[in-house]
Design brief:
Helix content is 29%, strand content 25%. With 352 residues, it is an alpha/beta fold. The protein starts with a strand and ends with a strand.
Length: 352
C-alpha cells in the first residue's frame, strides 16, 4: 500500500508587497553600519539572486493558524471528505501565531489544536499536533502521515504548512525581503492503485550546520537586543543546499526504481531562484544529464518564501492551472524536495 494526496488547498494572503516598497527601508550591516550603496542597488541585486519581485503578507487580523484553517477548509472540500473522518492533523510551522504589531510567538494551545477547533471537528480521536522542522516541515508531515497510515494507526491525515514570517523579520536586515506568509494543506490516505508516495529521504545535519538559521537581535543597535528576529548565514545555507539536496533527491529517486527521464516535475522549496536552479542542475549532473527547461515550476517571483507553505502551495497552484506553462497529469512522476533550518533536508518521489 502507498499513500496519496486526495485533496489539496492553499491560502495566499491578499496583502501584496513589491520590491519597490522597500525603497525607504534603512538597511544595515550586521555591525549596525549603513550600506555603502543606495536601496535601489540593494533591491536590484536582491531580485537578480532570489528572483523575487513581490511577496504576500498576512492580513492584519489573521495569524498563521487562521491561514492554515483557510487552506485546510479548501483541502477538505477538494478531497470531498467528511472532516470527522480525519485521524490526525499535523501542522508544520516555525514561529507559532504572531499577532500584528507584536514579536511574541504563541503556541499554546498548539496550532494544530486551533485548526481543529476552527474546523469544528468533534471527534476526540482526531489527534492534532505541531512539528517544528524548518522549511521542510510540510514534507516531513507527509512522511509522518505515511508512517501512520502504513502502520494502521490512521486512515486519513490532514497535513498543513503555514507561516507568517513577515512578523518575525528584522526590517534593517536586507534578508527580510525574502520572507512572506501563506498556507498549504493536504489530505492523505492509503492508495491501492499505482498513484502515491513511492520513496523518501529525510535527514538532519546538526553539527556545524545546526545554527545556519537562528533567532538573533536586530542589526539596529538602538533596538531592544532582547527582541529576536529570524536570521541566517545565507552563503553557508547556499553551499549546504547545493551539496546535500541533490544527493538526497538522487538517493530518493534511486530507491523508487523510477528513471530520471520519467520525472515530469520537481517541486522544490521556494527559497531562492538561483539556488533552486543550481540544485536542479547538480541533481541532473549526478545522472550525466542536462535538466529539462520546464522541469522546475516556480512561484517565488510573486509569492516570496513562505517557508513550510511554499511546496504545498506550488502543488495546489499547478493543479489549478495557475502556474503558466506547467501542468501535472495523472500518472506523472514528481519529486518534492526541501531544505531549511535544522539543517534539515527531505524529499519524496510521488506518482500523481
Amino acid at each position: 500500500m502507498k499513500i496519496k494526496i486526495i485533496g489539496i488547498g492553499s491560502y495566499i494572503p491578499t496583502k501584496e508587497v513589491s520590491n519597490t516598497d522597500f525603497d525607504k527601508h534603512v538597511f544595515l550591516n550586521e555591525d549596525g553600519s549603513p550600506f555603502a550603496y543606495p536601496n535601489e542597488v540593494v533591491i536590484k541585486k536582491f531580485k537578480g539572486i532570489t528572483g523575487i519581485e513581490n511577496r504576500r503578507y498576512a492580513e492584519d487580523q489573521y495569524t498563521a493558524s487562521d491561514l492554515a484553517f483557510f487552506a485546510a477548509e479548501k483541502a477538505i472540500e477538494n478531497a470531498n471528505i467528511d472532516k470527522e473522518s480525519l485521524d490526525y492533523i499535523i501542522f508544520a510551522h516555525n514561529f507559532g501565531d504572531v499577532k500584528t504589531g507584536t514579536h511574541q510567538t504563541d503556541i499554546l494551545p498548539s496550532l494544530a489544536t486551533r485548526v481543529k477547533n476552527k474546523l469544528a471537528i468533534k471527534n476526540p480521536k482526531c489527534v492534532a499536533y505541531d512539528i517544528l522542522f524548518g522549511c521542510p516541515g510540510w514534507i516531513e508531515g507527509v512522511l509522518q502521515a505515511n508512517a501512520f497510515i502504513k502502520s494502521g494507526m490512521a486512515k486519513r491525515v490532514l497535513v498543513i504548512g503555514a507561516e507568517t514570517l513577515s512578523r518575525v523579520v528584522d526590517d534593517h536586515d536586507r534578508d527580510s525581503m525574502i520572507y512572506s506568509d501563506g498556507a498549504g494543506a493536504s489530505i492523505l490516505e492509503g492508495s491501492q492503485d499505482e498513484s502515491g508516495l513511492l520513496s523518501y529521504e529525510s535527514a538532519t545535519f546538526a553539527n556545524d550546520e545546526a545554527n545556519f538559521l537562528y533567532f538573533g537581535k536586530s542589526y539596529n543597535p538602538d533596538l531592544d537586543p532582547d527582541i529576536k528576529y529570524i536570521k541566517m548565514y545565507g552563503r553557508k545555507i547556499y553551499e549546504f543546499a547545493l551539496s546535500q539536496v541533490p544527493c538526497a533527491m538522487k538517493s530518493c529517486l534511486d530507491k523508487s526504481g523510477i528513471g530520471i527521464d520519467e520525472v515530469k516535475k520537481i517541486l522544490i522549496h521556494q527559497a531562492n531562484e538561483k539556488m533552486d536552479e543550481a540544485i536542479i542542475e547538480r541533481f541532473y549532473k549526478l545522472y550525466d544529464k542536462t535538466a529539462p527547461h520546464d522541469i522546475m515550476p516556480m512561484s517565488i517571483h510573486d509569492l516570496g518564501n513562505s517557508s513550510v507553505a511554499t511546496v504545498p502551495t506550488l502543488y495546489d497552484l499547478i493543479l489549478k492551472g495557475e502556474i503558466e506553462n506547467h501542468e501535472i497529469k495523472k500518472g506523472d512522476v514528481i519529486i518534492f524536495a526541501s531544505v531549511g533550518a535544522g539543517m534539515n533536508v527531505n524529499a519524496f518521489v510521488y506518482r500523481h
